[in-house]
Amino acid sequence: MASIVERNGIIAAGNWIVDHIKIIDVFPVQDSLSNIKEEYLNNGGAPFNVLKNLSKMGAQFPLKAIGVIGNDSYGQWIKKECGKNKIEISNLHVVKKVPTSYTDVMTVELTGRRTFFHQRGANALLDKEYFNFNNSREKMFHLGYLLLLDKLDELDETGMTGAANILRSAQNSGLKTSIDIVSENSDRFQKVVIPALPFVDYLFINEFETERTTGIKLEENFPELDALRKAASMLFSYGVKEWVFIHFPLGVYALNKNGEEIIQGAVQIPKDKIKSTVGAGDAFASGVLYALHENWKIEDTLQLAVSVAATSLFDVSCSDSIVAIKECLKIGDNYSYYISG
């Protein structure tokens, strides 16, 4: 274990994605035409979203990136965005002959319904060779998304995934670790997620992902407390070290290693003000990570987290509507919360 040092900062690694959002008049049937009315580029992927959110929230500690991008215009755009948001990119590696990962997000103008065309690109190459925590003096390491990182999702001959090995290395260097997962409709959760959990201090997971990982049925909007408690306890039995955060549309259930639990309701944003929910999960994680880094009480941590998530709902992008922490916290004053306890 690394010697005790004064640690400061958050490292985030995983999927670096450019969302190319296109507003269209209608989603076409095959072989027909649709008109693009507007289009713009936005950040996507756990590390990109979380670090940009933290910057926009006003974080005064170092923000560092780890990942793989292509030697192309999207890769250049990512680097420029990181520069604007004071994200250190010496470990954001550029590879040749492979495109930067991107998603074409086709959004129907009148309904807001979205269809995604995803290029896995350079993210599929992210492997253990790109990680070295030997001289790290940061406080926290966030990795996402499991199930969408080809190399890191692979099992080795010992039954460990690449992600598990990297998280173990981060913990051994003195970093607190956290992960997020993609909501893939598959049966891979237990094979890919569970091996990583013994090396995770803070687990971010939604109700769908929790159900796929534990086998415990959870209702979508606000699951029953007993079911949440059983599922979180099972996740601890798989090895999580400190906190499990199960988030769902109307709130979050948090359980720690000592059995302390808290439910925090989401902010009640009127439906007519919600532009998109696409970045809410990463916005929630951004709030939690900021508060944990600054040693906030858990009640205050979760209020900040749901407030940051609420601000993300005001724009179709993942981060453009994120504001400074004081402004985020006003969200709870302006709107009421769903049930908390």
- Counting DSSP E segments of at least 2 residues, the number of strands comes to 13
What count of helical segments does DSSP give?
9
What is the arithmetic mean of pLDDT? Answer: 95
Sheet bearing the most strands, described?
9 strands, mixed
What is the CATH top level name?
Alpha Beta
Class from secondary-structure proportions: alpha/beta
Percent of residues in helices comes to: 25-40%
Output the CATH homologous superfamily.
Ribokinase
SSE order, as H and E? EEEHEHEEEEHEHEHHEEEHHH
Short description:
By secondary structure, this protein is an alpha/beta fold. The protein has 9 helices and 13 strands.
Task: Describe the protein.
The chain has a single domain (10-334), classed as UDP-N-acetylmuramoyl-L-alanine:D-glutamate ligase (3-Layer(aba) Sandwich). The chain has helices spanning 46-57, 73-84, 162-172, 189-192, 207-214, 225-237, 280-293, 298-312, 325-334, and strands at residues 10-14, 17-24, 36-44, 63-70, 87-95, 102-108, 114-119, 140-146, 176-181, 202-206, 243-248, 251-256, 261-265. The protein starts with 9 loop residues before the first strand and ends in a 7-residue tail after the last helix. The strands form 2 sheets. Strands 5-4-1-8-9-10-11-12-13 form a 9-stranded mixed sheet, sandwiched between helices. A 4-stranded mixed sheet has the order 3-2-6-7. 29% of the residues lie in helices and 26% in strands. With 341 residues, it is of the alpha/beta class. α5 packs across α6, α7 runs antiparallel to α8 and α8 packs across α9. The mean pLDDT is 95.
